[in-house]
Write the C-alpha cells for this entry.
Amino acid sequence: MSRAAAFGLARGAAFAGAGIAFPFVFSTAWIVNIGVLTLMYAALATAWNLFSGYTGYITLGQIAFFGLGAYSLGITFEHFGAGSGYNPFYALPLVGAGVAIASIPVAWIALRTRHMTFAIVTLTLLFVVQQLAFNLHSLTKGSTGLMLPTPSFPISSYDTPFYLAMLALTLLALGLCWLTLRSKLGLMLLAIREDEEKARGVGIRVTGAKLVAWSLMVWITAMVGGVWAYYLTFIYPESSVDPLVMIGAVLMTFLGGRGTLWGPTIGALVLVPAQQYMITKLGASQLYLVGYAAVFMVVLLVLPRGILPSLRSGADALRERRRTHRKRVARQGAPA
Amino acid sequence: MSSALLEIDGLTKRFGGVTAVDGCSFSVPAGTVTALVGPNGSGKTTAFNLITGYMRPDAGRIRFAGASVSRPDPTRLARRGLTRTFQQARIFPDLTLVQNMVAALQQPWHALLRRAVRSHEQARALELLEEFGLARLSEERAGNLSYGQKKLLEFAAVLMADPQLVLLDEPTAGVNPVLVEQIERRIRELNERGLTFLVVEHNMNLVMRLCDPIVVLDHGTKLAEGPPTAVRNDPRVLDAYLGG
C-alpha cells in the first residue's frame, strides 16, 4: 500500500474512532442531538459531492431522494407493520437501493441536459416529490403527516443509535468517495467534469459513469432520509423535502471544498453546530438564514474554492517560498 | 490501392439556410494518410464532426471498417477504433499527463472499480509520452503545458487505445516548426506501423509531402480526389484556392 493510501486510511480510522467515542464522552442528549444533525449533513453533503462535486453536474434535487427515503421507510413500517427497535436500520440498505433504482430513469432523462438546465430540472424533482407526499393521501397521509413506530430505546441514550447510524452512513459515503477517487470511475468522472465532449471522443461511457455516481448519491441520501424519519418518528411533506436542507448541504460542500474527499464533512462540522447555536440564540425565527447568507458571501469572497483547496495551495506556496529561501541562503553562503 | 477503411456517401449537413456539407462522398483507403483540404468554410471541420458523431447528418451514409454506422456516437465510434483530435487541442487540464493518457484507455464495465492508473497502464502511457517527448512532464498538470505540447498530448492520448483510424483536425496549426517536424515524423512512423489517418490541414507543403490521396472540398462538396500531383494540377482546385 502506498504512503498516501495509508495516511488516508489512518485519517478515516481516526475520524471513525472519534465519531464512535463522541456520544459516550458527551452523553448529554442535546449534544448528541447536534451530533446526529451534523453527521446527517456530513453524509448528505458527501453524497452530493460524490455526484455533483466529481462530475460538475450541480443538482439541487438531492433532497427529493431524502424525502423518498424517509417516506419509503415510514410507509413500509406504517402500512406493513414490520416492527420497530433496530429493524428499520437493517431495512435501510434495501430501501435506499429501491429509491436509487427508481431514480435511474429520471436521472437518465435529466442527464440529457447540462449546467443550469440540469440544476433546474433536478430542482423540480424536489417539488414533484413534495407534491406527491401531499397528494398521495392513502400512502403518506398528506399534510397530516405520517407517524412511525417509536423505538423502545432507553430515554437516557435515546439518540445514540441514530447517531451511530448517521455516523455509519457518513463513513460509508466517505468510503465510497475514497474508492471512487482511487478508481477508474473517479478518473472518468473527473474527465467528464473537465471536458465531457472530449471524454466521449476518447471512448469514455459518460452516461454510464454519471449514472453510477448518481445512484450512489441517491442510495446514501435515501438511507439518511430513512434514519432521519425514524429519529423524528413524525414526518410531513414540508419537513421531509426541505429546500433549506438542500441549500445547507450544498453550502457545506462549497465551504469545505468541492471535489475533495473531506471538504463536505469539514463544512458540516463547522456549519451545523454554528447553525444550531444561532437557532437557539435567535429563537425559532429563521433569522439564522441571514447567517447562512453571510457564510455564503464570505466563502465566495475569501475561499472561492473552499477551505481544503485553499489550505492546500497555501501550504504549497509556503513550501515553495521556503525552498527558494533555502536556495538563496545556499547561494549567498550561511548568514554570519 | 487497398480497400476503404472509411466510406462517406452523400453526407449532407444544413445549418439554417447554409449547407455546410453538401452531398459529400469520399473514402479513406486503409493504410493511407488521407488529407481533407479546402478553403476556409469549405466544410472540413463539419465533415469531421459528422463522421465522428459530434453532429447528426441530415443525409448520407458512413461506413467504417466494412460496417455501416447508422447512428454515429463519439463513444461508440472511439471504441470501434475511430478517434479524433480537435482543432483547438482538447485535453483534461486538471489531470496529470499520465492520467490524461490512461483516461483515454477504453475500459470495460467491470474495470470501473479497479485502480485509476494501474502499473502496466502507467508503463504504456510513459512509453507513448516518451515517443512524443513528454515523458519528463508525466506528473505535471496537463493545463500547465504549452499549446504545442497540448497538441502532442492530445495526439498521444488518442493512440492509447490502439485505434484503426485517427482523424487529425489541423495537427500543426499554431505549432512551432520544430514541433511540426516532430508531428510529421510521428504520423509517418505510425502510418508505417499500419495506422490510417485522415488529416485536415492548411499547411499545403506538409500535405503534399505527407498525404496520399488528397480530397479537396469546396462549398461542402468534393472538388477533387486523387494523388498529390493530380490534385495540385487540377484547374478546379487552383480556381477554388486562388479565387476567380
Remarks:
- The first helix of chain B runs from residue 44 to 51.
- Residues 218 and 237 of chain B are 9 Å apart (CA to CA).
- DSSP finds nine helices and ten strands in chain B.
